[in-house]
Amino acid sequence: MSSKFHNLWFVPLELPQQENSFDCGLFLLHYLELFLVEAPVYFSPFKITKLSNFLNPDWFLPSEASLKCTLIQRLIFELLENRYWEVSSAASSDEDQAKFLECNEHETGVQSF
């Protein structure tokens, strides 16, 4: 381990926990998103109080982080749909559109309707 890390302090925090064994990535994304929005300009982990609603067990409901899956899924579908309309408007024939849909389905695993 690099000597740079020998002087780091460990600050244990009680934070909202996932309720299953598969939402850890969604929780990490939610922690980061909320931290970037809510962290004070001069943040110090040593000044966190029990009365603060920031970085404590009641910071957010676990279901909020789990909903990230649905939001990410919607975003992916919107991106795919936008890409489809870009390509279809540029396509010169129905054959080109069919090739795009077939290729897109193969690459992403997402079926177009």
Automatic annotation (TrEMBL):
Single GO biological process annotation from the record: proteolysis
Keywords: Hydrolase, Protease
Native source species: Prunus yedoensis var. nudiflora
Transmembrane stretches, start-end: none
Record lineage: Eukaryota, Viridiplantae, Streptophyta, Embryophyta, Tracheophyta
Full protein name: Ubiquitin-like protease family profile domain-containing protein
InterPro entries hit by this protein: Papain-like_cys_pep_sf, Peptidase_C48_C
UniProt record similarity statement: Belongs to the peptidase C48 family.
Domain Ubiquitin-like protease family profile residues, every copy: 1-35
Single annotated GO MF: cysteine-type peptidase activity
